[in-house]
From TrEMBL:
It comes from Miscanthus lutarioriparius. Its main location: membrane. One of its GO terms (biological process) is actin nucleation. It is a single-pass membrane protein. The lineage of its organism: Eukaryota, Viridiplantae, Streptophyta, Embryophyta, Tracheophyta. One of its GO terms (cellular component) is membrane. Signal peptide: none annotated. Keywords: Membrane, Signal, Transmembrane, Transmembrane helix. This is Formin-like protein. It is found in: Membrane. Belongs to the formin-like family. Class-I subfamily. InterPro entries: FH2_Formin, FH2_Formin_sf, Formin-like_plant. Residues 1-241 form the FH2 domain. One of its GO terms (molecular function) is actin filament binding.
Length: 262
């Protein structure tokens, strides 16, 4: 249930998909004029490297910029009824806090992701296998019934238990396969053919969990910054040439057919 819930959360989160879109746009903006400037997708692993790309001030990272852009877009939803000329510092700060609250709430919205990331699927699978092995031992014990002159009540109860347990474990196996199928589906949804190369079936949740931790940290930093840096692309002053140099410094030498990676 946790694994399937994590898949639903990941694919159904409007804010997470919006954040991915913002990252894609930021990457294309930084790579404008190059063959990486028109990417259509990127691997989620890239999210973990957004904090490595820094602006000219040495403090503002690409993740800060993305968060600020999302905050500004969420601000816009709150300010539709307010005319531009009527806005003032107080209202602007209020809208900014509302937008930041929405972004910082993504971690709670994707709560199942954190639970799924802490699981070890191999261990989970072994638990079911051990239960099935235990049923085999019970069957061996039931074979002794013909040799026993006593304990008929015990054997009768064990037969009933075995019948019920076999049905339950069969259902658990089906649930396990269904959950793993959903995980593979969501991994392919975000990673395409790269899903076949995933060594750990639940790795996608680990990546998102670590990113959410980074996001929480950045949201706290943004909330402490002066409001003048919010929503301004100029606060992340980096030319396409400088951006490419920095990205290459952090290992951006590869590009797939439709995306870029940091």
């Amino acid at each position: 249930m946790v694994l399937q819930g994590a898949c639903d959360d990941l694919k159904g989160s409007r804010l997470f998909l919006k954040l991915l879109e913002a990252v894609l746009q930021a990457g294309n903006r930084m790579n404008v004029g190059t063959n990486r400037g028109q990417a259509k997708a990127f691997k989620l692993d890239t999210l973990l490297k957004l904090a490595d790309v820094k602006g000219t001030d040495g403090k503002t990272t690409l993740l800060h910029f993305v968060v600020q852009e999302i905050v500004r877009s969420e601000d816009a939803k709150s300010e539709k009824a307010v005319e531009d000329e009527a806005r003032n510092i107080v209202k602007d700060e209020m809208f900014r806090k509302q937008g930041l609250k929405v972004v910082s709430g993504l971690s709670n919205e994707l709560g199942n992701i954190k639970k799924a990331a802490s699981m070890d699927f191999d261990v989970l699978h072994s638990y079911v296998s051990n239960l099935q092995t235990g049923l085999g031992k019970i069957k061996s014990i039931l074979l002794l019934e013909k040799q026993c002159t006593q304990g008929q009540n015990f054997f009768a109860r064990m037969r009933d238990f075995l019948k019920e347990a076999e049905m339950e474990i069969k259902q658990v196996r089906c649930d396990e396969e269904r959950a793993l199928g959903r995980v593979k589906e969501i991994t392919e949804y975000f990673h395409g053919d790269a899903a076949k190369e995933e060594a750990h079936p639940l790795r996608i949740f680990m990546v998102v969990r670590d990113f959410l931790s980074m996001l929480d940290h950045v949201c706290k930093e943004v909330s402490q910054q002066d409001r003048t840096v919010v929503g301004s692309a100029r606060s992340f002053r980096m030319s396409a040439t400088t951006a490419m140099a920095n990205l290459k410094m952090y290992g951006q030498h590869e590009r797939d057919d439709d995306g870029w990676s940091l």
